[in-house]
Amino acid sequence: MTERLRRNRRTKIIATLGPASSTPEMMAQLFQAGADVFRLNFSHGSHADHALRIEMIRAIEKKFARPIGILADVQGPKLRVGQFQSGRVQLQAGQNFILDMNPAPGDTRRVCLPHPEILAAAEIGATLLLDDGKLRLRVLRKRDDHLLTEIMNGGVLSDRKGVNIPDVVLPIPALTKKDIADLNFVLPLGIDYIGLSFVQRGADVAQTKALADGRALVMVKLEKPQALDNLDEILDLADAVMVARGDLGVELPPEDVPIAQKRIIRAAQLRGMPVVVATQMLESMITAPAPTRAEASDVATAVFDGADAVMLSAESAAGQYPREAVNMMDRIIARVERDEDWRRGIDAKRLAPERNSADAIAAAAVQVAHTIGAQAIVALTASGSTALRVARERPGCPVLGLTTSLVVARRLAAVWGVHAAVIPEVHSMTEAVAIAAKRARLDGFAQKSEEIVVVAGVPFGQPGTTNALRVARV
Predict the structure, then answer these.
(1) Which one of 16, 149, 208, 279 is the catalytic residue?
(2) Catalytic residue among 12, 53, 221, 224
(3) Is 263 designated active site?
């Protein structure tokens, strides 16, 4: 069973669960089709819904004897306008429109904006984007209890539509009371990554890591221009990063989003942290059994850029073809990774190792594997860092990440090229090499008499001690 489900690609797939994919049968189909990590979207669903999904995921994990990662994506401070007397209004360009604190239903002249932080932080001339940027307002006058704006781009505005303010750093934390309650509920259930929405500064990451207390890694979602301004500060504290192109595409000009995507991927690769590209990757497959050519190219671009994972949102959560969407993403990735230009591009962008023994060992392992034609690099890892360092080198052969911790194996499900497996404790390099050779053969990476490269840290069981390299014959 394990060998049959070995992926034929390096780039991982994250699939969001929702109404279209919440039965054990459909989850198993998504896993078999290619999902490596499942995302729980806490913007929707009850605690009971999410607890049941976690239970189902762990049952599938046990059935197929493969570690599966779980990403709990919290909603964050979603900013919205209030309600209208008739449910919606038509706003005309050139007219004035007031955003105020009055909870009374709105009309064509005004609506409630129940966020005093926005009223306090907005400046004259600032832009407000409503309903994913479909409507654009410019602030003309500021008072303590309202903003007078001019409608630059009009259209229909209905109840509870979102508000984005690309020009302003808002003095609000990334974690809301709802998020904290959601995390306090889900962390004890055993998740692997927290998706932290609307990060603006490093302090947002520090707050979440303190709450997680090592129970899950923090994956920052970069959705605001302010996050790009503070990119180094944020990534220095984060464990993983997501290029969340939904809100980022609202607040940035469309022509800037691909540049931001490449910049974020490169910054993550420099740090050796997993980076995910998300949002609208196969959007048309929500209602169609096949993607557009542009969508296929979008997925391919993320793979060529070297992203660790690509993500499906509504396609797998609420679409009509969830299994087909995962299968299509799997097919696109596998096809790109068979292309000679993909390998040449990955090799050309390979980063210089950092000046420490662990990175030197990882780089040497990749070079040795290439020189001798090794079938795999086997990384024995207590914390996951050895496997991450080898993956950062983007080797030409598969990476088999062996760990005594199921928690670490699940976290490695989001890492480029790493096939993770749980092994018993080892006490010597001789024992480690023997287990590595046996596991490489068992999981279909190498046949008898073929060679593998083994990297590990001695003494065993101590995180961050990558210092040993062996060549072994299976």
Answers:
(1) 279
(2) 221
(3) no
In this structure, whether the domain defined by 357-473 belongs to CATH 3.30.2350.10 is answered with: no
Q: What is the pLDDT of residues 165-215, one digit of tens each?
A: 988 888 888 899 999 999 999 999 999 999 999 999 999 999 999 999 999
pLDDT for position 47: 98
- Domain boundaries defined on the chain: 12-77+173-339, 88-164, 357-473
The one catalytic residue among 39, 161, 392, 410: 39
Catalytic annotation, pick one of 78, 80, 263, 266? 80
Tell me if the bond preceding 67 is cis, omega within 30° of 0. Answer: no
pLDDT digits (tens, 9 = 90+) for 2-35: 334 689 999 999 999 999 999 999 999 999 999 9
Measured CA distances, 211 to 172, 185, 231, 233 (Å): 17, 12, 22, 19
Q: Do 265 and 346 contact (CB within 8 A), yes or no?
A: no
Assigned CATH for 12-77+173-339: 3.20.20.60
- The tokens of 15 are what? 């699939």
221 is catalytic: yes
State the Cα torsion 221-249-131-197 to the nearest 10°.
0
In 108-256, alpha helices (H):
116-121, 177-186, 202-212, 225-229, 231-237, 245-251
Token pair for 227: 């996050």
Q: Which residue has the tokens 């239970």?
A: 55
